[in-house]
Amino acid sequence: MVTADDYRFLVAEDAINRIENRVKLWGLPYPLNKAVALEQIKKLKSTFMKIKYSYLPYTMLIEFEEFKNLEQFVRELASILLPPKTLKLDTTTTKLAVAEIRYALSVLLGLRNRIALGDGNNPEYAIDIVGVEVGYVEKHPKAKKLWVTKAGTEQFSLTIVTNIQGIKKGELRGAAILPPIAFFDIVSEAMYCTNPLEKSFKGKRIPSNFVHKVEIINVVESIVENVR
Questions:
Q1: 160 and 175 in contact (C-beta within 8 Å)?
Q2: Distance CA 120, CA 140 (A)
Q3: In sequence order, what are the residues at sequence separation of 6 or more whose Cβ sits closer than 8 angstroms to the Cβ of residue 6?
Q4: This model's pTM is above 0.90
Q5: R_g (Cα) of the chain, nearest Å
Q6: What confidence category does residue 205 fall into, taking pLDDT thresholds of 50, 70 and 90?
Q7: Is 168 helix (H, G, I), strand (E, B) or coil?
Q8: What are phi and psi of 128, to 5 degrees?
Q9: How many helices (H) and strands (E) does the chain have?
Q10: For residue 228, what are the β-bridge partners?
Q11: Which residues pair with 128 in a beta bridge?
Q12: Do 174 and 206 form a contact (C-beta atoms < 8 A)?
């Protein structure tokens, strides 16, 4: 497997850079021991590079011992970087920064499963595309053509701002987990990228033949420009 140029590894490398840049900048309303966080990131980067330049077949790569180390470093970073559950995030800037940390950690924790998709170096393989149930829909208070939705599974919930007219509570759609964006002060953590699907897809990766790929490919290409 040509791991060095694979979209999955390039997007993951960008995720590490996002975490490192945020730690250096910080400015969030809860304390951080930067020295500890940066040391953990150093270990994470070293382990990631061992995986990236292993050039192992994907069937061997997903069993590679270094993946376990990488995932452990990511979980430890999550415990350091994420805010206490009781902390209310008051500003859009803070919400966006925390959402970006969550996104980057998620990219890294999901890397092994995306490698398991096979040898194909497809842009859509670089991100998680998960079946989520729409649980809440309301008009965006500041944008006529946008809707604010909450969607998820039993394990997680996402805020997704969309321009899909007629989106309904109870629908099951595929959501691409992308770098968060603030749309008029509301942070969107993903993008719907399928038509309504059968309920059996909830919580599962959506097969590529159901996915509207054009926008996803454009976003992934813009991400990997940062690390190529």
A1: yes
A2: 38
A3: 121
A4: yes
A5: 18
A6: very high
A7: coil
A8: -85, 130
A9: 7, 5
A10: none
A11: none
A12: yes
Distance CA 159, CA 103 (A): 12
- Token couple for 107: 């990219």
| Residue-range domain boundaries for the chain | 3-121, 126-212+219-224
Helices 92-109 and 65-81: angle between axes, nearest 10 degrees: 160
In contact, 208 and 190? CB cutoff 8 Å: no
CATH of 126-212+219-224, one of 2.40.50.140, 3.30.750.24, 2.40.50.100, 3.40.50.20: 2.40.50.140
Residue with tokens 């099951």: 172
First to last CA, the chain: 18
What residues form DSSP beta bridges with 177?
190
Q: Assess contact for 182 and 97: CB atoms under 8 A.
A: no
CA distances, 204 to each of 14, 124, 201 (Å) = 24, 15, 5
Q: Which CATH class is domain 3-121?
A: mainly alpha
One-letter identity of residue 226: N
Contacts of 109 (CB under 8 A, 6+ apart): 71, 74, 75
**Per-residue pLDDT tens over the stretch 143-198:** 999 999 999 999 999 999 999 999 999 999 999 999 999 999 999 999 999 999 99
CA–CA distance, 139 with 137 (Å, rounded to integer) = 7
How many Å apart are CA 210 and CA 15, to the nearest integer?
26
